[in-house]
């Protein structure tokens, strides 16, 4: 096991132990944060390799729109948290696949993403109006942006885990192949891989991961964990097989350090602390070429 994996394991264990014994109310939120960070980070190098960083960052828009649509739908049918997760998942997959659909019209990936984001922003404004006028006591738009970190319980983790496990399947089973396919798509097709099919599967997998993380991280921070760990891993190593483990280690380090920052500075939300730690970690790793 490389040094960075050891550091990540030690820091994560220390943070979980501290939460369990010193701040019990933060234990299950931290468990949820660790699980979501691991799964999102597993997707990060894959997003970079297929030049989907713009789409990964667009998840902030996609998930906010999906979460608002899901919250309104859940409130209207008087459903619970399970219904909310399922609706977020449905709308997130729909929005992400619509980017590929726009690409099929002849647009480049960045243009297709921009077109879909433009439509999402319009839908978000309309949904915010609906929430404000019709469901002001049922839906808190701010909570959809920041997440409900301190309210996460063991039952929420139990509900979240199956979605995260499903999302982890793609990087575990196809992660290395997907990274190699990004280098030479013609070679990938020659050996039986189907890059376009894998793009679709990746988008679905990423959608599931982001949908599962919205209650803990909100709608904005999942996009950071989909980009930054992979960007740091690329600077740390040129080995394709090492990028996913390093990205996961970087995410775990940021989560563990963010936990200690939050216990010392409670007004600094954990997800914001994660972003700060990732920005600090970006500079020292200079072994590989920039992404």
Overview of the structural elements:
- The protein is mainly alpha-helical and 291 residues long.
- It has 13 helices and no strands.
- Helix 2 (27-49) packs antiparallel against helix 12 (240-264).
- It is globular and about 55 Å long.
- The mean pLDDT is 84.
What is the tally of beta strands? 0
Helix content: over 70%
What's the helix count? 13
Determine Rg (CA atoms, Å): 19 Å
Residue runs with pLDDT of under 50 for 5 or more positions: none
Strand content: under 5%
Helix/strand class: mainly alpha
- Separation of the first and last Cα atoms: 25 Å
Kindly report the average pLDDT value.
84
Major β-sheet annotation: none
SSE pattern, N- to C-terminal:
HHHHHHHHHHHHH
Shape annotation: globular
Short description:
By secondary structure, the chain is mostly helical.
Helix/strand layout:
Blueprint: H1 3-21, H2 27-49, H3 53-57, H4 59-77, H5 81-103, H6 109-134, H7 141-146, H8 154-183, H9 185-190, H10 195-217, H11 221-236, H12 240-264, H13 270-282
Features:
13 helices; mainly alpha; 291 residues
């Amino acid at each position: 096991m490389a040094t960075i994996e050891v550091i990540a394991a030690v820091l994560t264990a220390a943070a979980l132990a501290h939460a369990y014994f010193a701040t019990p109310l933060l234990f299950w939120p931290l468990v949820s944060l660790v699980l979501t960070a691991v799964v999102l980070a597993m997707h990060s190098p894959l997003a970079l390799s297929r030049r989907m960083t713009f789409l990964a960052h667009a998840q902030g828009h996609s998930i906010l729109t999906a979460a608002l649509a899901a919250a309104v739908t859940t409130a209207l049918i008087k459903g619970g948290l399970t219904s909310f997760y399922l609706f977020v998942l449905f709308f997130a997959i729909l929005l992400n696949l619509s980017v590929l659909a726009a690409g099929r019209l002849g647009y480049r990936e960045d243009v297709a993403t921009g077109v879909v984001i433009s439509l999402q922003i319009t839908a978000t404004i309309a949904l915010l109006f609906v929430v404000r006028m019709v469901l002001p006591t049922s839906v808190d738009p701010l909570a959809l942006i920041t997440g409900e970190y301190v309210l996460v319980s063991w039952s929420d983790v139990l509900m979240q885990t199956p979605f995260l496990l499903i999302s982890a399947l793609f990087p575990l089973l196809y992660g290395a192949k997907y990274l190699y396919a990004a280098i030479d798509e013609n070679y990938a097709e020659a050996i039986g891989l189907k890059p376009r099919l894998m793009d679709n599967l990746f988008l679905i997998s990423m959608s599931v991961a982001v949908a599962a993380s919205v209650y803990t991280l909100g709608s904005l921070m999942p996009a950071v964990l989909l980009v930054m760990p992979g960007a740091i891993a690329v600077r740390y190593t040129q080995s394709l097989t090492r990028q996913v483990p390093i990205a996961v280690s970087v995410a775990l380090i940021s989560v563990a350090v963010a936990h200690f920052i939050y216990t010392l500075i409670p007004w600094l939300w954990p997800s914001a602390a994660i972003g700060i730690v990732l920005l600090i970690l970006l500079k020292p790793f200079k072994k590989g070429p920039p992404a």
